[in-house]
Design brief:
Shape of chain B: globular
Oligomer: heterodimer
Strand content of chain A: under 5%
CATH topology of chain B: Porin
Number of strands of chain B: 15
Number of strands of chain A: 3
Order of helices and strands of chain A: EHHHHHHHHEEHHH
Radius of gyration of chain A: 25 Å
Radius of gyration of chain B: 20 Å
Helix content of chain A: 55-70%
Largest sheet of chain A: 2 strands, antiparallel
Structural class of chain A: mainly alpha
């Protein structure tokens, strides 16, 4: 049971005990004050308080971490949502599972084929995240803006970041990743350009941008998890490198190709559908 | 002669210890976090009990009162506070069995979790008091900043024996000694919830163990005046601990009490003003406490106040059975406007 507004020392002072007519001075603690404001849903006041404190004491990393949490709070991050993410971190091991292979014989172009394989690999990796963090709430575009800002503040800490702050940043990045996957990554399939095409086309430019954004985010998450858990650092580094290579190859292809052949198109689209990436545009009955 | 002895004895005890520095900046619950095991009536007195002659549901706080026991007594007391739903989680925590379900229960359900439960077997007589405590569990956690929770967790489980003996040294001057043998497991940590997901953080809430043996002397001098004014002194935590921990302080502390019993129309009234610590982190002003116990027939009404809260309750001793209920508040340190409320209930059997 907890209730606000009681000052026992007032009662005590009113009692017969001597020497307590003056209220004991308490040092104003900015962090505690900010915590209280956040818990009372007065997050804007907390942000104002912390930004003011940072102006006076720019080197105080604790203020910055709390400020990041205040922005995260505006982004909908609360304890009930954090606990499952933290407790399911072991599920990240699924990300290391073998990636699916494409039947190369069906592909018309080896280069196109490889690009499709890379793209599907990235999709599978992201799907692993979605499965591991199914309980992670979906952030609205407005909330995602605040979460991005919270991540930005934590990034500014540079090498002063502590393991727990890195893990907190990873949590925010996971929420952001889920938002981007749900809101942006899909929807890249366009209507057939002409009657000869039987399936929808991939908008290469959009896919490229999204793949790069998500790839970078995924690498940041893996690095942060590795930093906060040194026993997983090697595995996370390997996965980060693999993701980096995959996204890089994908980007090289996207910048040189104008169209993806039909087989690869189907493969990528099926991968997207199979792994549940949000806004698939239906076309031609698909 | 008596005054000389009294003064010498006060000077001796006064020289033993001073106030401990206040080191925690986050929160501290001086009324729930006390490492001193206490009965329901003692809690309702805000632990201002050194000069109280008769604690009906347990041993006297000051062993020098042993010689004032009126009749032999044997009893069993069971105490439970609100928040008992978390009792199992706290015990698992203290056993080092940390599971996701337990973490969810402990830290994501609300800002404050508190629980206290204990069982005592008491024996009181004119020269010897004894208490066996098979188990006492206390748990308290405060979660701040729901966006990146900062947790303060305190949990302790103790088992042990207490023996008291005392006598009247000369007219109205009583002295006694208390021996406590305690085996305790505890966790006292402040951490961010996300730290539990880091490699280092996994060790944060591992329980620590300590065995303690204390030999604690006490004395009371009654002045031969109306209202029975009396002064008491008690030296807490004089003894040995198997291992010192920074987060669980039990320093030697001299504690003082001034008591009197103003006459009332019906029943008896005892009032005590004391200077004593509960968790040895309080400031001087927080160590001041006031308690009053009114006894009429089978009923005890009690109340207490200190710098961190108020408490009050009622206790009935009906033939062999007794029962009581106490309400207590605790202000959070550095939080002027927030406090925890605790309700304790106790059932007992005495012969």
């Amino acid at each position: 049971m907890a209730q606000p507004r009681l000052k026992p020392e007032t009662l005590l002072c009113a009692s017969m005990l001597a020497g307590c007519s003056k209220k004991e001075d308490k040092k104003q603690n900015t962090v505690l004050e900010a915590y209280r404001l956040i818990d009372e849903q007065r997050t804007d006041e907390a942000i104002e308080l912390l930004e003011s404190a940072i102006t006076k004491e720019p080197s105080n990393t604790e203020y910055k971490v709390v400020l990041a949490s205040a922005y995260a709070h505006k982004g909908g991050i609360k304890v009930q949502k954090l606990v499952p993410i933290i407790n399911h971190s072991e599920k990240l091991k699924k990300l290391g599972e073998k990636l699916p292979e494409l039947n190369k014989a069906e592909a018309k172009s080896q280069r196109v084929n490889q690009a499709a394989l890379n793209l599907s690999a990235v999709l599978v990796r992201f799907a692993g995240f979605l499965e591991a963090y199914a309980s992670v709430p979906l952030a609205t575009p407005n909330q995602a803006t605040y979460i991005r800002h919270a991540i930005y503040i934590l990034n500014e800490l540079g090498n002063k970041v502590k393991p727990e702050d890195a893990l907190y940043r990873a949590v925010l990045e996971i929420v952001l990743l889920k938002h981007i996957l749900a809101e942006n990554f899909v929807g890249e399939f366009l209507e057939p350009a002409n009657k000869e095409e039987t399936t929808c086309r991939i908008d290469l430019g959009n896919v490229n941008d999204a793949a790069i954004t998500l790839g970078k985010l995924l690498i940041d998450i893996l690095n942060d998890i590795g930093f906060s858990n040194p026993d997983q650092a090697e595995a996370m580094k390997r996965m980060a490198n693999e993701t980096s290579e995959t996204v890089s190859n994908l980007t090289i292809f996207f910048t040189s190709a104008t169209v993806v052949d039909e087989v690869s198109n189907i493969f990528v689209r099926q991968a997207a559908v199979q792994h549940g990436f949000g806004k698939i545009i239906k076309c031609n009955g698909f | 002669m008596q005054w000389v002895l009294t003064n010498a004895f006060l000077i001796f005890f006064l020289g033993i210890s001073g106030a401990q520095a206040q080191t925690l900046s986050f929160s501290r619950n001086a009324r729930t976090f006390e490492t001193q095991h206490s009965s329901l009536v003692t809690k309702s007195l805000a632990h201002s009990c050194l000069t109280i002659i008769d604690i009906p549901d347990g041993l006297p706080c000051n062993p020098s009162m042993t010689a004032l026991n009126k009749k032999p007594l044997f009893g069993v007391e069971l105490l439970l506070s609100n928040g008992y739903a978390s009792l199992e989680s706290v015990r698992k925590l203290l056993d080092g069995k940390i599971t996701q379900e337990m973490v969810d229960t402990m830290f994501s359900q609300g800002k404050v979790i508190q629980i206290e439960a204990n069982a005592d077997v008491n024996f009181k007589s004119k020269y010897l008091n004894a208490q066996y405590t098979p188990i006492t569990v206390k748990g308290f956690s405060v979660v701040r900043n729901e966006a990146n929770p900062d947790v303060e967790l305190y949990a302790i489980e103790e088992k042990g024996f207490t023996f008291q003996s005392g006598l009247e040294v000369f007219n109205d001057f009583y002295a006694g000694v208390q021996a406590r043998f305690i085996n305790r497991k505890f966790i006292s940590q402040r951490f961010k919830l996300v730290q539990l997901g880091t490699q280092v953080g996994k060790d944060l809430i591992k329980p620590k163990e300590q065995i303690a043996t204390y030999i604690e002397p006490g004395a009371t001098y009654f002045l031969a005046k109306t209202w029975r004014p009396r002064v008491s002194v008690f030296v807490a935590n004089l003894g040995y601990v198997s291992k010192q921990y920074e987060e669980l302080k039990t320093p030697v502390e001299a504690q003082y009490g001034l008591g009197f019993s103003p006459p009332v129309g019906w029943g008896d009234l005892d009032i005590s003003i004391e200077y004593r610590s509960m968790n040895y982190e309080e400031s001087d002003i927080e160590k001041l406490r006031l308690g009053a116990l009114y006894h009429f027939g089978s009923m005890y009404l009690s109340g207490g106040i200190d710098g961190n809260g108020i408490s009050g309750g009622v206790y009935y001793g009906l033939d062999k059975f007794n029962a009581g209920i106490v309400y207590s508040t605790t202000r959070f340190v550095d939080e002027e406007s927030f406090f925890a409320q605790t309700v304790y209930v106790q059932l007992g059997w005495q012969i």
